[in-house]
Design brief:
The protein is mostly helical and about 375 residues long. The protein folds into two domains: about 210 residues, Citrate Synthase, domain 1 (Orthogonal Bundle), CATH 1.10.580; about 110 residues, Cytochrome p450-Terp, domain 2, CATH 1.10.230.10. Helices cover about 60% and strands about 0% of the residues. The chain has 17 helices and three strands. The protein has a three-stranded antiparallel β-sheet with strand order 1-2-3. β1 and β2 form a beta hairpin. The longest helix is centred in the middle third of the chain and has 27 residues. The radius of gyration is 22 Å and the shape is globular. The two termini are about 20 Å apart. The model has no long low-confidence stretch (mean pLDDT about 95). It binds carboxymethyl coenzyme *A.
Length: about 375
C-alpha cells in the first residue's frame, strides 16, 4: 500500500515554526525573555530574577524574589545516592570515558528517582521540581569537580547567589564580586533561547507526558554536542589549538594562515555561526565585553587570549561574514576565570535548566504529542522471501 508522503521540511527543520511559546522570542532584531530584551536583563537583573521570570511568568516583587531565593538555597542539597555516584567522578573521568556533561546527566537522573514529585506532572509539582533541579545542578557540578580535584566536598554557602555559590562549590574559593557578576551575567545570557535543540528535545519528551527529570536528562544529552552547548568548550579547545600551532605571539600572519587552512579543510570553527542569527548573536558582545574586562584585571596572558580571539573573529567576519555566537566569548571568559574547560557546558546547564523547565511546564499545560512525519526515501516495497 502506498501513501503520499508530505513534502519534506527543510534539512535541520530550518525556518520551520514547530510550535508556539510565551517564553522567549529569538530574532535577528532582538532576543526577548517574556517581553524583556536581553541587554536590559543583562544590565539590570540578576540570574535569580531572570529564573523567576522564566518559571513564574512575571518580574518578581521584592517579597517574591526573597521567597524564591530562599527556596533555591534550601533546595541545594542533593540526595546521598547522587553524592555517592559523584564520589566516583574522578575515576570515571580519569580511568574511563566519563565527561562532566555525562556525569551531570546521570546525577540529574538519580535526583529524579529520589524526588518526591518525580512522577507527578501537575503544574505545582512541576514548579517544585524546577526549583529543586535548578538549585541542585551547581551542587552536582561542585561535588563532581571537587572529586576530580581530590578535594573534600565543599558545602554550599547560603549567603552566596546561584552564580557565586556555583563558583564557590566548584573551586573551593570564595569568588570576588567581579567574578560573581561575570558568572551571573553569563547565566542570564544562557538561560533561554526558544526552540533550540535541547529545549525542543525537552518539549518532545514532555509531550509524551513523561516527567520533568526525564525531559531534563534528554535536554542535557542534547546540549552536550559541539554544534550546540558543547561549543563553549570546543571554542576554547580551538583557541588552545591555535595558540599551540602559532606559538606565544599573536602574529596576525600566522593566525590568518591557520584560519585559511581551516577554511580550505572546510572545518567548522567552533563558537561561530548560528541558525537564526546570521549577522550576529546579541549575547556575544555582552559577554565579550565583560570577559575582556575580567582578562584585563587578571593579567597580560589573559588579555593575549582575548586578542587572539578578536583576530580570529575579525578574519571570520571579513572573509566569511560569519559572526561569533555566545559560546565564543564564553570559552575565553570562563578560561580567564580559571574554570576547568570540561565544566563550561555543565555551567550552561546550571542556567538553561530554568528555560527548559519553563518549556516543559508550558508543554504539559497545553499538551499535544509532538509527532512529525518523515518523507520516506527508502526502497520500494519488496518481499522478504523473494
Ligand atoms: N565555521 C565555518 N563555517 C561555518 C560555520 C562555522 N562555525 N558556521 C556556518 N558555517 C558555514 C557553513 O559551512 C555553510 O557554508 P556553505 O554554505 O558553504 O556550505 C554556511 O556557513 C551555513 O552554515 P550551516 O551549517 O548550514 O548553518 P546551520 O544553521 O545548519 O548551523 C551551526 C548552525 C551553529 C550548527 C553552525 O554555524 C556551526 O556548526 N557552528 C559551530 C558550532 C557552534 O558554535 N555552535 C553553537 C551554536 S549557538 C549557541 C548554542 O547553542 O550553544
Amino acid at each position: 500500500m502506498s501513501t503520499t508522503a508530505p513534502a519534506p521540511a527543510t534539512k535541520g527543520l530550518e525556518g520551520v515554526i514547530a510550535g508556539e511559546t510565551e517564553i522567549c522570542n529569538v530574532e535577528q532584531s532582538a532576543l526577548i525573555y517574556r517581553g524583556y530584551e536581553i541587554a536590559d536583563l543583562a544590565a539590570n537583573a540578576t540570574f535569580e530574577e531572570v529564573a523567576f521570570l522564566l518559571l513564574e511568568g512575571h518580574k518578581p516583587s521584592p517579597e517574591e524574589l526573597k521567597r524564591f531565593t530562599a527556596e533555591l538555597v534550601d533546595a541545594r542539597d542533593i540526595p546521598e545516592e547522587a553524592k555517592s555516584f559523584l564520589t566516583h567522578s574522578a575515576n570515571l573521568v580519569k580511568n574511563h570515558s566519563g565527561v562532566p556533561m555525562d556525569l551531570l546527566r546521570t546525577a540529574v537522573s538519580i535526583c529524579g528517582h529520589l524526588d518526591p514529585d518525580c512522577q507527578d506532572n501537575s503544574a505545582d509539582a512541576n514548579l517544585r521540581k524546577a526549583k529543586r533541579i535548578l538549585a541542585q545542578v551547581p551542587t552536582i557540578i561542585g561535588h563532581m569537580q571537587n572529586n576530580i580535584d581530590g578535594r573534600d566536598f565543599v558545602a554550599h554557602d547560603p549567603d552566596l547567589s546561584h552564580a557565586g555559590n556555583l563558583l564557590w562549590m566548584m573551586t573551593g574559593e570564595k569568588p570576588t564580586a567581579e567574578a560573581e557578576k561575570v558568572m551571573d551575567v553569563s547565566l542570564i545570557l544562557y538561560a533561554e533561547h526558544d526552540y533550540n535543540a535541547s529545549t525542543f528535545t525537552s518539549r518532545v519528551i514532555a509531550g509524551t507526558l513523561a516527567d520533568m527529570h526525564g525531559a531534563m536528562t534528554g535536554a542535557i544529552a542534547a546540549l552536550k554536542g559541539p554544534l550546540h552547548g558543547g561549543a563553549n568548550e570546543a571554542a576554547m579547545d580551538m583557541l588552545s589549538e591555535i595558540r599551540n600551532d602559532i606559538g606565544p605571539d599573536n602574529d596576525t600572519g600566522k593566525i590568518t594562515d591557520w584560519m585559511h587552512k581551516a577554511f580550505e579543510e572546510k572545518r567548522k570553527l567552533m563558537g561561530f555561526g548560528h541558525r537564526v542569527y546570521k549577522s550576529g548573536d546579541h549575547r556575544a558582545p555582552i559577554l565579550h565585553g565583560l570577559g575582556r574586562k575580567a582578562a584585563e584585571a587578571r593579567g597580560p596572558e589573559f588579555v593575549r587570549l582575548f586578542e587572539l580571539g578578536e583576530t580570529v573573529q575579525n578574519i571570520m567576519e571579513t572573509d566569511k561574514k560569519i559572526y561569533p555566537n555566545v559560546d565564543f566569548p564564553c570559552g575565553m571568559t570562563y578560561f580567564t576565570m580559571g574554570i576547568p574547560v570540561p565544566q563550561y557546558t555543565p555551567i550552561f546547564v546550571a542556567s538553561r535548566v530554568s528555560g527548559w523547565a519553563a518549556h516543559i511546564m508550558e508543554q504539559h499545560a497545553n499538551n499535544r504529542l509532538i509527532r512529525p512525519r518523515a518523507a520516506y526515501s527508502g526502497p520500494e516495497t519488496r518481499k522478504w522471501n523473494g
